[in-house]
Fold this protein.
Amino acid sequence: MKKIELSLPERCRIVCISDIHGNYDTFCRLLDKCGYNENNDYLFILGDIIEKGKQNTDTLRKVKQLAENPKTYVIKGNNDTMCPRMAFSDSREKFLSRLEYRPFNAFIEMANSLGISDFTDDFEEKRGKVQDAFIKELEFLDSLPTAIETEDYIFIHAGIENRPDWENGDEGFMLCEPWFLRDSHMSPKTVVCGHYPCFNYKRGNNSNLPIIDTDKRIIDIDGGASTKSAAQLNAFVINKNGSEYSYENYFEPTASEKVTVRRSFKSDCVPEYVDWENHWLSVIDKTGELLYVKNEITGATGTIPEKFTGSWDGKLHGWISLNAFLSVDAGEAFWVFKRLENYCFGIAQNGQVGMIPIDCVE
């Protein structure tokens, strides 16, 4: 496990961004929004630079260019390991099997830019052409370290094991542990991570905003880009003033449609958390495009658009919170991810995720 040990100056600003997932445009807007200054600020990018999004090559090249700055530090995420493996070490069979579950990925995007779309024949020759054209980007990915450690913080993609010598733990855990906020660790330092969207946790409070758990000394900053129904990138800023630290956050939704609320709307609904790995919905009633359901695991009831539900394993599941109706004021920004018949679903200016009546924005 390769780790960067870094001693920070008495006063500095650290901009932390994780799980960009190939969202180049959003990433650039976020850097502008948070006022990132390459001369003064430290920039920590905590992995999953690529995959799942559609602008992988541009994102990778942007991060690589930023990493030329001595105040920029980049570590790898689990998704950053696939492209170098496809380029350098996968057998033909393993390479093609990856395409079965992710037919569009960073390596294929590189290949497509060279006019290569089919690897079923002349495999090594075609792979060699991609290697030659993108060798600098591929070697950059392949060389990324796993962690950054400062006097008071550990920066890692997914988490660290609950052991005093966390550096000697399993790298697979560090890159892939899904529910690290439900775990604990033995380090006296605060762990800043991404990998698992904040929205997936009840403490996320129906938003993608960072979760700061002071008791567990864990901060999750993953805004769910390219993984959640309404998602964003977070720029989590750590302001260091001697031994004191303060936090602030800037976020930029990945939606292409940003609108201004024309009519205020007040909702008295309280969103009900849905644990996406452990829930089962049963329908009580249906009104238009909305289902009134019961969560058979928790006993909670609430409303969810039918379009945000699906059936598998003989059960009905949903992928947003129940009762996710938001309050907004005229003049506020709202990022639209999906237009339903009577509602807009997206992210409000305060960071909450949910629905407002469609006539509020039209």
